[in-house]
TrEMBL record:
<keyword id="KW-0274">FAD</keyword>
<dbReference type="GO" id="GO:0003824">
    <property type="term" value="F:catalytic activity"/>
</dbReference>
<dbReference type="InterPro" id="IPR051264">
    <property type="entry name" value="FAD-oxidored/transferase_4"/>
</dbReference>
<dbReference type="GO" id="GO:0071949">
    <property type="term" value="F:FAD binding"/>
</dbReference>
<keyword id="KW-0285">Flavoprotein</keyword>
<dbReference type="Pfam" id="PF02913">
    <property type="entry name" value="FAD-oxidase_C"/>
</dbReference>
<dbReference type="GO" id="GO:0022904">
    <property type="term" value="P:respiratory electron transport chain"/>
</dbReference>
<dbReference type="InterPro" id="IPR016166">
    <property type="entry name" value="FAD-bd_PCMH"/>
</dbReference>
<dbReference type="Pfam" id="PF01565">
    <property type="entry name" value="FAD_binding_4"/>
</dbReference>
<comment type="similarity">
    <text>Belongs to the FAD-binding oxidoreductase/transferase type 4 family.</text>
</comment>
<dbReference type="InterPro" id="IPR006094">
    <property type="entry name" value="Oxid_FAD_bind_N"/>
</dbReference>
<dbReference type="InterPro" id="IPR036318">
    <property type="entry name" value="FAD-bd_PCMH-like_sf"/>
</dbReference>
<dbReference type="InterPro" id="IPR016167">
    <property type="entry name" value="FAD-bd_PCMH_sub1"/>
</dbReference>
<protein>
    <submittedName>
        <fullName>FAD-binding oxidoreductase</fullName>
    </submittedName>
</protein>
<dbReference type="InterPro" id="IPR016169">
    <property type="entry name" value="FAD-bd_PCMH_sub2"/>
</dbReference>
<feature type="domain" description="FAD-binding PCMH-type">
    <location>
        <begin position="37"/>
        <end position="218"/>
    </location>
</feature>
<dbReference type="InterPro" id="IPR016164">
    <property type="entry name" value="FAD-linked_Oxase-like_C"/>
</dbReference>
């Protein structure tokens, strides 16, 4: 059987070993990890340098071959997998995995796109610094993917999302030109902030090959607590109290309903942390570069909150094992939902002050639309990002439930819009929300986005059919 000429030409750039056309070898690159999208590809190409990425894109642009950039393949909206047509080329960046430089004096780290988030964290820690982006998939997800999707995570409250953690980028444009924007400057007013075009663009405007990341002082002390509360309004009150009493030391503030605790306990080997059951829980963590004072601050915070009402009980981790056990309740929550049947998931952002009322109204609307469904709103209350997932009614057929995905979406996203929120907080648009974006985005904003796309990728070869 004659080899595809595209594979032959790409192999001349990256080497025969890294231009993959064998179906079995390509398989892991073609499916989204939840199985929502299963695509086909002409081949998978794995360049090992920026120069090779440049040559691949120049060739693809000249030939009109569509390219799908991919990092750790942990995305949740289908942006990183090809369509079912079989004519696209997957550009995997996972061979580009060098930490080029760690500069403690300027508090920066230069990492290539294929460096995993965990390795970036470890490189920072080795220099007595912190890279604060934190995700459950940090052992697999990559810096390129994190920036391409503008990842969030559990520390956005204190440090911001991925966009806030990058100073400079190296990007290969659709025609193969290389933009060297790897600056370490905290202030640079020489024109447009080009890097923020590419952060969050999901590989549709250019391919990020390296980044200058911001580092921070490494915490000397972290104190973690889990609180049982009456309702989300009490959680919001606790958040305000925590900010007032601990300021920037509040680095995590995660909201979890009782249903989520039960799922993690029943399916993930977690232990119910408090003696009694409570309608809602908050995982709160304080961090400081100082090595003392946080335990007293946490005790004062929880004491004041319990005295004021709303917080019914709390436990403070007194060892690393206890801290890990509390975090496990939160980090295994998404996986635990799979054992309960179908789950229709939403990644939304809301004005923080409106979240309690939003949850109350949306839960009621969902019950009316589908009696017995089990809403599971959880996540980053501290920055207004909820993963508003809805688990199927007990005993309902899973396929029948998932067949009503659009109906449930309309309820959650309709109320999100009414409350001034966003349909995507940290997962991106990809394929999953592409049509929905056109319905909710300001028309002028969409026109500007299309104009930028047409300017940077006039032939439409970069991740076609994603975002726009």
């Amino acid at each position: 059987m004659q080899q595809d000429p595209a594979v032959t030409q790409l192999a001349a750039i990256v080497g025969d070993k890294y231009a993959i056309a064998d179906p079995a070898e390509m398989a892991p690159y073609l499916v989204e990890w939840r199985g929502l999208y299963r695509g086909k590809a002409r081949c998978v190409v794995r360049p090992g340098s920026t120069a090779e990425v440049s040559a691949v894109l120049a060739l693809a642009n000249a030939q009109g071959w569509p390219i799908v950039p991919q990092g750790g393949n942990t995305g949740l909206v289908g942006a990183q997998v090809p369509h079912e047509t079989g004519d696209e080329i997957v550009l995997s960046l996972n061979r580009m995995d060098r930490v080029r430089e760690v500069d403690p004096q300027s508090d920066t780290l230069v990492a290539e796109a294929g460096v995993t988030l965990l390795r970036a964290q470890q490189a920072a820690e080795a220099a007595d610094r912190l890279f604060p982006l934190s995700l459950a998939s940090e052992g697999t997800c990559t810096i390129g993917g994190n920036l391409g999707s503008n990842a969030g995570g559990t520390a956005v409250l204190a440090y911001g999302n991925a966009r806030d953690l990058v100073l400079g980028l190296e990007v290969v444009l659709a025609d193969g030109r290389i933009w060297n924007g790897l600056g370490k400057l905290r202030k640079d007013n020489t024109g447009y902030d080009l890097k923020n075009l590419f952060v969050g663009s999901e590989g549709t405007l250019g391919v990020i090959t390296a980044a200058v990341l911001k580092l921070f002082p490494r915490p000397r002390q972290m104190v973690t607590a889990l609180c049982g509360l009456t309702d989300p309004a009490a959680a919001l009150d606790l958040l305000g109290r925590a900010k007032a009493m601990a300021g920037n030391a509040v680095t995590t503030f995660e909201l979890i309903p009782r249903l989520g605790i039960e799922m993690s306990v029943n399916h993930m080997g977690c232990r119910d942390p408090l003696q009694g059951a409570h309608p809602w829980y908050v995982l709160v963590e304080l961090s400081s570069p100082r090595d003392e004072g946080l335990e007293e601050a946490m005790e004062a915070l929880l004491g004041a909150a319990m005295e004021a009402g709303g917080v019914e009980d709390a436990v403070i981790a007194t060892s690393l094992d206890q801290r890990n056990a509390l975090w496990k309740l939160r980090e295994t929550l998404s996986e635990a939902q799979g054992f309960e049947g179908g789950s229709i998931k939403h990644d939304i952002a809301l004005p923080i002050a409106r979240i309690p009322r939003f949850i109350e109204e949306t839960n009621a609307a969902l019950e009316q639309a589908m009696p017995g469904c089990r809403p599971l709103p959880f996540g980053h209350l501290g920055d207004g990002n909820l993963h508003y997932n809805v688990t199927q009614p007990v005993g309902m057929d899973k396929a029948a439930y998932l067949g009503r995905w659009d109906e449930i979406n309309r309820v959650v996203h309709g109320l999100t819009a009414r409350y001034g929120g966003s349909i995507s907080a940290e997962h991106g648009i990809g394929r999953l929300k592409r049509k929905l974006l056109a319905e909710v985005k300001d028309p002028v904003a969409l026109e500007m986005m299309r104009a930028i796309k047409a300017t940077l990728d006039p032939k439409g070869v970069l991740n076609p059919g994603k975002v726009l």
